[in-house]
Amino acid sequence: MREQISACCAGPLDDRAFRAATLDALGVAVPFDAYVWVLTDPVSAVGVSPLAYLPSFDMRRLPRLIRAKYATAINRWTTLHGCVSLVAATKGRLSESRLWRVGSETLRVADIASMVLRDRHGCWGFVDLWRYDGRPFSDEECAFAATLLAMITTAQRARVARMFEPAHDQPSIAPALVLYDDDLNAVGETPAAEPSFRRLLPTQSGDSPVPAAALNVAAQLLAAEEGTDTSPATSRVHAGGAAWLALTAARLQAGSPGMPPSVAVTIDPITVAERLDVFSRATGLTTRETDVLVELSHGNSTRHIARNLSISEFTVQEHLKAIFAKSATASRAQLVARACGTATT
Fold this sequence. Notes:
Elements: H1 2-10, H2 15-29, E1 34-40, E2 47-53, H3 62-71, E3 83-85, H4 86-90, H5 98-103, E4 111-119, E5 122-131, H6 139-162, E6 176-180, E7 186-189, H7 193-200, H8 212-226, E8 234-238, E9 244-252, E10 262-269, H9 272-282, H10 287-297, H11 302-309, H12 313-327, H13 332-340
Antiparallel strand pairs: 1-2, 1-5, 3-4, 4-5, 6-7, 6-10, 8-9, 9-10
């Protein structure tokens, strides 16, 4: 089974196929009935792209479930290490978890095993494995899953790096705005919101798109207001091809007395600085290599980079060799085009 997961990690599968195949292989040794694997922004750890299978769950309750996930401090991925079951974390008092309480409104939830995909470059995702019936996850099962996390995290980060590869005929993305109430029910949106959501999480043409990234960033704002977590309510998310978007949630001030509280989520094309940050982390660049890349993005020559960073020109060239190898690029032009989002071939 470990060999199967290793093959998934090393293979050519794209992000969603990689996650699905890894879960299939993991389920042989650690059986589960449902799962949620969420790709996250590496800095804020806010979810951006979920892969979920929750049989018998009423999808109309999805906003409520996401709200509960972010509001639950127990086994929260921002403080979690390894793989921990909810039964173990609560010593069997499952009702202490808001996530379990909400999930149990429509499902029989025996246990939830939670794990985080984190390395020195950032937080790349979190995984919840659900058991509806039967015994809880054993310490041995959780310990075994934990031994796989470093390998899976590296592979997940590599999939994010591939999201910067050039694409032909990249359509433009218009800024959008969505308003939610404090229960994450949508109360209004601009016309550009729906096509953005459809690009972030593709759905059938006749189905309404699932605004997962917006719900996650809004839930993070509410969690921060409640003191559950201090991370910013922001995220950077791949929008297909070589395009990326930036999402930000903020509290909307009431315009008149009696106006209900609401959360505004803005969706904008990503800035070059934000894109460079995610690219540098996803490709595993060091701090100094990132500094060199930023200098390159400004069009600076080797001489100017050496002067600005107080290093020798030889050292700049050595850093460039390392960056080329990590980013699978062969020239400065190709590297800058991919990192900054200007590549079309």
